[in-house]
Amino acid sequence: MTHPAQPEASHFINGEYVEDTAGTPIPVIYAATGAQIATVYAATPAIVELALSTAKEAQKAWAKMTGTERGRILRRAADIMRERNHDLSVLETYDTGKPLQETLVADATSGADALEYFGGLAASLTGEHIPLGEDWVYTKREALGLCVGIGAWNYPTQIACWKGAPALACGNSMVFKPSETTPLCALKVAEILIEAGAPAGVFNVVQGMGEVGGALVTDPRVDKVSLTGSVPTGKKVYAAAAEGMKHVTMELGGKSPLIIFDDADIDNAVGGAINGNFYSSGQVCSNGTRVFVQKGIKEKFLARLAERTGNAILGDPMDEATSFGPMVTENQMNIVLGYVEKGKEEGARLICGGNRADMDGYFIEPTVFADVTDDMTIAREEIFGPVMSVLDFETEEEVVARANDTEFGLSAGVFTKDFTRAHRVIGNLEAGSCFINSYNDAPVEAPFGGVKASGVGRENSKEAIKHFSQVKSVYVRMGDVEAAF
Ligand code: NDP
Fold first, then answer.
1. Atom of ligand 1 nearest to the CA of 209
2. Is-contact 247 285, C-beta < 8 A?
3. Annotated catalytic residue: which of 147, 161, 170, 285?
4. CA–CA separation, 19 vs 5, rounded Å?
5. Residue 364, strand partner residues
6. Residue (of 18, 8, 464, 20) closest to 200 by Cα position
């Protein structure tokens, strides 16, 4: 009997499921048990060609529809996603291993928010009129054309929607390649868009590893590439896109600072540190994994943090009581355990966790290190797992300089009751998505993205429109043309 997670076929192109078993088989493993729950096949060159040619053709008619018509389809898709939230969340849990307690509120719901928000904006994408005496210029906001979306494995439904919704709202078509680790959820997004009335071919999904992504990025028909992934992949994809002078959005990794001053409300700060390190078992790009705590409250903070971390419930992700799931793969678990060992070897003080959990699946205990120094590997490299590093600091000036001393610049947070200081510190931090007395909120209305090596461009909010459209300027002369000869 097939598992309920097994999709009808591997790819979704031109409004229907498409299979080509000549592609490399990709096993889909449920991280909570290690069992294989589905198989998809990587796209062959024929599948890549079908997806790109279909999307290129479908885009023309899609862009000619009115924004109101396009928006209506996206908003209908949002409604369908919300109606099916439970089933979509179960699938997201199979795909990623994240607990249902999370997926019920953070994945299809976030995808639906993006579809609703950009659906609402679609009709208001206009240009401007620029008077020049008798003459004038008018501008038009036009689609870029064919966009490629490439996703990471931590939020497969959300990433497909965060890229697909603004792309489609602006009149683009998309070929989306999910991570090979989590290939299932984006297929449902494609299915739902068709059900909501999207013309066949405007949103397509193909499976595969980096080489399929590479084939998509380098194809001359592609006008834009939006990647969510690691910095090394981002550098490769950005360079390949530059070769074809394509537009890019790069949502990459981070090693973000979370700064807690000694006047902060301890429980809120601990809550922020937990949300910024242990949600999705730490597999979140914007996580505040360098937690700088002012010396005066250090031990009190650590004691409360250890106590609350002890309340995490590890277990069957399908049980809604479970609040902490496994790593997405065995490989990712081993990478993270390697960092935990490095932390121990380099002299950080283990406060809690630090081991693989004694149960089936790829679980690692939520882990906190204290007395971490800036030069330690766990304070410099993105771990992408449940490993929090707590560092001490004394002054504001010192902590800002240390917080900025990294190649990354995705997020940053500050906890303090002194609002003047909060705004000053945030103003001095080199990061794109910041938080005051909070951490990791990502509403669709707010721009999201990084500076420095963490990326280029912004997702969500009205900012995303700028990255999925371009301005055409038209000069209109009312009188005669003067020429030198
Ligand atoms: P990877 O960079 O390994 O992969 C990202 C995607 O790129 C995958 O679909 C991958 O395919 C594909 N890919 C790999 N090589 C190429 C290539 N040469 N050309 C085109 N595509 C390629 O990231 P992970 O999936 O491991 O995700 C974790 C990373 O993503 C972390 O660094 C995290 O911080 C970042 N991330 C950033 C977010 C943001 O918004 N800033 C949000 C979420 C995660 P394959 O299927 O083979 O892996």
1. 47
2. no
3. 285
4. 16
5. 356
6. 18
CA of 65 to the centre of ligand 1 (A): 33
Query: Is 170 annotated as catalytic?
Result: no
Q: 213 CB less than 6 Å from ligand 1?
A: yes
pTM: 0.97
Q: Choose among 290, 231, 258: nearest CA to 453.
A: 231
| 398 is a catalytic site residue | no
DSSP symbols for 3-60 = -TT--SSSEEETTEEE--TTSPEEEEEETTTTEEEEEEEPPPHHHHHHHHHHHHHHHH
Cα–Cα distance measured from residue 11 to residue 19, given in angstroms and rounded to the nearest whole number: 6
Whether 428 and 395 have beta carbons less than 8 Å apart is answered as no
Q: Among candidates 146, 127, 147, 145, which has minimal Cα distance to 137?
A: 127
Per-residue pLDDT of the chain (485 residues; tens, 9 = 90+): 689 899 999 999 999 999 999 999 999 999 999 999 999 999 999 999 999 999 999 999 999 999 999 999 999 999 999 999 999 999 999 999 999 999 999 999 999 999 999 999 999 999 999 999 999 999 999 999 999 999 999 999 999 999 999 999 999 999 999 999 999 999 999 999 999 999 999 999 999 999 999 999 999 999 999 999 999 999 999 999 999 999 999 999 999 999 999 999 999 999 999 999 999 999 999 999 999 999 999 999 999 999 999 999 999 999 999 999 999 999 999 999 999 999 999 999 999 999 999 999 999 999 999 999 999 999 999 999 999 999 999 999 999 999 999 999 999 999 999 999 999 999 999 999 999 999 999 999 999 999 999 999 999 999 999 999 999 999 999 999 999 99
Asked if residue 252 has its Cβ within 6 Å of ligand 1, the reply is yes
Strands 224-228 and 146-150, bridge-based pairing: parallel
**In sequence order, what E strands does 229-335 have?**
247-251, 257-260, 290-294
Number of the ligand 1 atom closest to the C-alpha atom of 236 = 18
Q: How far apart are CA 447 and CA 451, in angstroms?
A: 12
Rounded Cα gap, residues 328 and 148, in angstroms: 24
Sheet holding 387-393, edge to edge: 349-352, 367-370, 387-393, 290-294, 257-260, 411-415, 433-436
Instruction: Give the atom of ligand 1 at the shortest distance from the alpha carbon of 251.
Output: 41
Taking the centre of ligand 1 as the mean of its atom positions, its distance from the CA of residue 293, in whole angstroms, is: 31
Do 372 and 348 meet the contact criterion of CB atoms below 8 Å apart?
A: yes
